[in-house]
Amino acid sequence: MHENEQLNEFITLITGSVRNLSLYPRTHPTVQTAVKRANTILHKLLSTQREIVVAVIKNTLLIEKTPFYTTTKGIEEFIDRLARIGINGIVFYRTINEKEILILLESLTIPPEDLNKQGGIALRLKNLGVKGIEIKKIEEDIKTEIFKTYTAARDEIFNIMSELRLGHIPEKTTIKEIISDLNDAMLKDKNTLLCLTMLQDYDEYTFNHSVNVGILSLSLAQELGFKSDELLYVGLAGMLHDIGKTRVQRDIILKPSKLSSEEWVEMKKHPVHGRNIIKEIGGISDTTATYVLYHHLRRNLSGYPDSNGITAQPDGSKIVAIADTYDSMTTLRPYQKRFDPRESIEFINNRAGEDFEQNYVKAFIKALGIYPVGSVVRFDTNEIGIVTKINDTDPLRPSVKLIMDENGGTINKMEEVSLDEKDPSTRRYKRTIAGSVGTAQQGLLDLNKYLK
What we know:
The protein is an alpha+beta fold. Helix content is about 50%, strand content about 10%.
């Protein structure tokens, strides 16, 4: 079982057991089995790391700084219990045992007023001899903040599109505030945002794709030196570029095979629908509406809709076109293989000057790196890794997570390393990228396990 899956099972066991202890005695088989399994998982995880941290920040449960978005009754009650007793962090250490886990769970079921009489949960654990658990105050870090901003953006796109599918124009939207937050997040930690654009979710593809194109558009616009309002116009256009598809029949949008000529005529109307919807929503710049209208018009004025006499594709539309193409190619869907980020960059670069603005493509490559985040690469050591951070100083030496050793074995405890690292004895680089791993082999990998 992969580490992320173990963490997910552990938190499900813990939160479920707190709830069960309010229904059953501590000796009940349901409770005992869950505690035993939770202890087993903890010791597997702690064999390769010093501690496991569970925290609640702004009503979101985090495990090892990664938001846990699965919602169950047990998790909701667990978050509420922590808030009511005034704590937000629990740290598990290697000395943990079943008895200590059970004491923690029982402590969490005690009414806050009774727990306060005992000096609070931390003192209660100490008085009962618990040494493998510590209660801590956990502060929100930038990565967590960015995860939540991304999720808020996806949820807002979902709400807007759902309203439109029902034939309603949203009366209120926070989309402008969200794109501003994403722009700020891009400046704080671009690599974390780019990692998020590579996460795969079939069920949420439409909404993730919209947010991803907004993020990629912002990244390119920043690289090109766009300022202030113009940045936000472009980012909004990226997020709203497919909003017109809500007025195209769903069986056309979801069709897994090639569209008929009649269906293609309908599909090509979505940029016009998008422009019209933005105007109907109101409060969003006409500039953004224009960028959405022409995001499928190419540099050479081929594509759609008709150029209507304009002599050049608008700058913002050029940006969204590149971002849209890149994210569409690097996304795995039931009816489409996932292209490697480097392959996708090469595809776009080969069409620079005709479909895409050449200077914009160069800036896009610079913004994402020669080996973009999410690229699966093989090293001269024969190890395999996934790029997690670009290196602005030396694009050929990004940071990576090693996922396979030189013999092709899976690395269970993933380690992030910089390719700048040298062997002290030889002064040579420890690893150098030999090339990208083929798309076929990449299809066997679940990127979500490595990029979260």
